[in-house]
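Sequence, structure tokens passed on for absentees:
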Amino acid sequence: MNPIRAIIVEDEPSGLENLRWKLQNNCPEVEIIAECTNGQDAVNTIRRLLPDLLFLDIMLGDMTGFDVLKSIRHPSFEVIFTTSYDDYAIQAIKTSALDYLLKPVEVDELLDAVAKARVKLQNPANAAAKQTPAAPATAKFGLPIATGMQFVDIQEVIYAQAEDNIAVIHLADKPPIRLTKTLGWLEEQLETYGFYRVHHSYLINRNHIAEYIRNEGGFVVMSNKKAISISRRKKDGFLQFLEAGDGV
């Protein structure tokens, strides 16, 4: 395929040099066509050069990486965030970013991110897809874990369970993931993705409900055969939740 024309947006000289070196020595398919050290320069350069891929820092001094993206109408490029902060992963995912790399960027993670970009750019439907934000049902979600951030497809999540003061994510055909956040925090993040908190200890994914059993409170059987009770005070809200999603 043709080279991936990339722009690096990074306001720290050491970060810029580090990323440039790793790209030049590990990603020969990436052609760095410009380097920008502030947000406004990035906006102007992107509009002028129309890159395939943007390596974008979040804190740029004059503006944020998110401000840069908002300034570009109908972006046709893929975005890989590179940042020292892990607090913005969810916001990054909502911009349909391809990946979110923490500095100093690890070579293996960089290679994976560039490979994702290559696949997306080879897809003829890519340009049309970039015009419309990804639907929540197929969105990637960043999960804060002890070692950093782990990304999963939303619909791989069957349910989450409170354990002490953290949440444990249970996935389809994958090991559970222990978060560094509470179930209440996770509930706030996933409420628009078809999740409902049926009990103070459980948050479930509507698309993984296999069966609903009515009794005093009721319970659901999830796609992995896990039976989860519905608290009596949550029952009415849960039924409304099912109706809003056309049932199960």
Notes: The CA atoms of residues 76 and 127 lie 6 Å apart. Helices lie at 13-26, 39-49, 65-70, 89-94, 107-122, 126-131, 183-190, 235-244. Confidence is low (pLDDT under 50) at residues 124-138. The chain is about 30% helix and 30% strand.
